[in-house]
Amino acid sequence: MKVEQIYTGCLAQGAYYIMSEGEVAIIDPLREVDAYIQRALVDKAKIKYVLETHFHADFVSGHLDLAKKTGAKIVYGPTAAPAFDFYSAKDGETLSLGKIKIKVIHTPGHTMESTCYLLKDESGKEVALFSGDTLFIGDVGRPDLAQKVSAALTQEILAAHLYDSLRNKIMPLSDDIIVYPAHGAGSACGKKMSKETQDTLGSQKATNYALAPDMTKPEFIEAVLDGLVAPPGYFPLNVMMNIQGYDSIDDVLARGQHAFTPDAFEAAANETSALILDTRDAQTFANGFIPNSINIGIDGGFAPWVGAMIPDIKQEILLVSEPGREAEVITRLARVGYDYTIGFLQGGFDAWKNAGKEVEQIKSISALELADQNNQDASTLILDVRKASEFKSEHIKGAINAPLDFINDSMSMIDKDKTYFVHCAGGYRSMIFISILKARGFDHLIDVKGGFKDIKASGKFKTTEYKVPTTFLLLAYYLYFLLHHHLLILVQ
Description:
By secondary structure, the chain is an alpha/beta fold. The chain contains 18 helices and 22 strands.
């Protein structure tokens, strides 16, 4: 038996490769499926099942391409009703894979079709739980996503289902079972996931706030919903793609890998409604870019920020990237449903510049330069584009919080005629923010490279007193709860 976690940092997503006696099951595959197929070829094995834990919101699954290329059977749990051929597994049903068994456990809550898969080894021992978005390490799946698809499902109703699923289906399992979730820290599918990507169920029972043994259903609902922010706008669109189907990744790559000369690229930009997406490093972008292009760096949290910043997944995209990385970028766009890259700038930005085309720049200064500016002018306007929770935790006194996550609302706070100094945590998000606003006519935004990290390290700014983020407070509350509970037991 082989169990392999295939973790993708950009999406904080874990897919799984399970093999026994020449048969393979893939759980929650990403859009690009050739890596799974190659693994099976090396093992001289056949992919038998594509097991989906639910209709994913944060990425487009590779289930259709994988099934088409291998003949594997797509499996969902009860209540799932996609628009393609699949096998509807019953709650408690056992699937055979070589000499091992996989038990289907229907766990509604994150979504109504959410399903976990319990792996039994050759001896019949329960050894691993592939928990999807039902149970994370340190957290549980947010119960507010399915309501975007069905108005009849409120987040309170879903949270109540999740409570029952965890208490009745998951927590009774053996403590030594390994939990393999679909996501880790950085995913928007939960709010306080651990950086760890696996743990024993016993450890989670002891440390995960949502699994507190004496927690009532109302307490659970309140705790799970507390601190949730609106999910990215592309989430329900990805859900529908996973339900209804989509173009093959091969077709997406073929369409996107059309090389444009600078002249042809300029013509395409002028003659279509395509968005120019520049995926180079933030500071490289600041030093020179094509007018009206926006910057989302490929080496940061690329896919989620694309989803958050580009509201229409059918938006046509013209790509500017580091030469040689075009296929990578197109693939990572497709992971979150952005299938309409229509071509890229051959030779990258240097080709554009060498052709004598118009170039724009963004002024970027250091934290020390910002300190000098602030000392000279006490009315200096500083925009902090971090999340509201980051801002509340600690910020420059007098700074304005204009979160990138809600850029349209943040934009309404800004006077086009005034100069603002913009920072995030490290410099990635601030450049996204400035590039988008510059494309909309905001010309007086100055980037602070290094972000709040460098600002804090400089010691030149008055900052608010540090406050522990809400997620840590929840953990502290839970630890207090456990301690109090055990003390009561000792007294009794």
